[in-house]
Amino acid sequence: MPTNYSRQLEIVSVISGALPIAAAVLNFRNLNVLLKIIAALFLFSFIVDAGLWMALLDGLKNDMYVIHVYIVVSLIFYTIIYHKLFEKKLLKNITIIFSCVAAIIMLIYNHNLNEYPSVSNTALGVFLITLSLCYFYQLLNPQEFVHIEKQGPFWINAGILFYSAVNIFLFMLLNQIPQNDRAGFYMIHSISNIIANILYSIGLLCKPQKTS
Fold first, then answer.
1. pLDDT for 132-185, tens place per residue?
2. Predicted confidence (pLDDT) at residue 7 exceeds the cutoff of 90
3. Cα(104)–Cα(134) distance, rounded to whole angstroms?
4. At what angle do helices 2-16 and 33-57 cross, to 10 degrees?
């Protein structure tokens, strides 16, 4: 029964990836360059998730090389996104440095493309948790007054932090969890992904706000 629930949640999780895309399409004229880049990342993520799910249904036994590629491309996207989000040069430089460190870790520890990239995903998770917390600090210390809850990046950053923080230990330990015991952990991942996609959608539906 838990396995059935896990499979059903995985389907809902994959489908939920279409929500940010729909939000971006509906609000496209109000999206700035940064939000369009973010929307492109979510489109890429949805294509990968849907593709992996269909490949699983078709009986593909090993799709780990796709996950390796996905993590590398995601790192590039997120580096660009946070570099643009940060206002201070110091935080921009930290973004570049942390990105390089994460990339080096990925190159050193993940040579087998047929194995789950636990170290790479963990490195990406730590990278995102760190930068999302730094961005919240920036939002809470603005140079001029803004309603942060009306800012699209606020909701998107919240989704990134939530998803990364919930799943960091799963990414870290997945290779050590017996196959038969993974269903419950996959359910946690699916639920967090659904919630994150809802937060991303809220962010992409936000209208531009004037500062004062």
1. 999 999 988 876 667 788 899 999 999 999 999 999 998 888 777 777 766 677
2. no
3. 22
4. 140
* pTM, to two decimals: 0.91
d(CA 165, CA 5) in angstroms, rounded, equals 23
Of 178, 181, 173, the residue nearest 2 (C-alpha)? 181
* Number of neighbouring beta carbons within 10 Å of residue 61: 7
Q: Give the C-alpha distances (Å, rounded to integers) separating 132 from 129, 155, 164.
A: 5, 11, 10
Using the CB atoms, write b or e for 21-46: b if 16+ within 10 Å.
Answer: bebbeebeeebeeebeebbebbbebb
Name residue, tokens 């789950």. Answer: 116
Element (H or E) spanning 129, and its range?
A: helix 118-140
Copy the structure tokens of residue 58: 């078709």
Decide: 111 and 123 in contact? Cβ < 8 Å: no
Taking the C-alpha atoms of residue 41 and residue 36, their distance in angstroms, rounded to an integer, is 9
State the Cα–Cα distance between residues 136 and 26, nearest whole angstrom: 27
Q: Is 32 helix (H, G, I), strand (E, B) or coil?
A: coil
What SS3 class is residue 53?
A: helix
Is the Cβ–Cβ distance between 128 and 187 less than 8 Å?
no
Cα–Cα distance for residue pair 151/208, rounded to 1 Å: 7
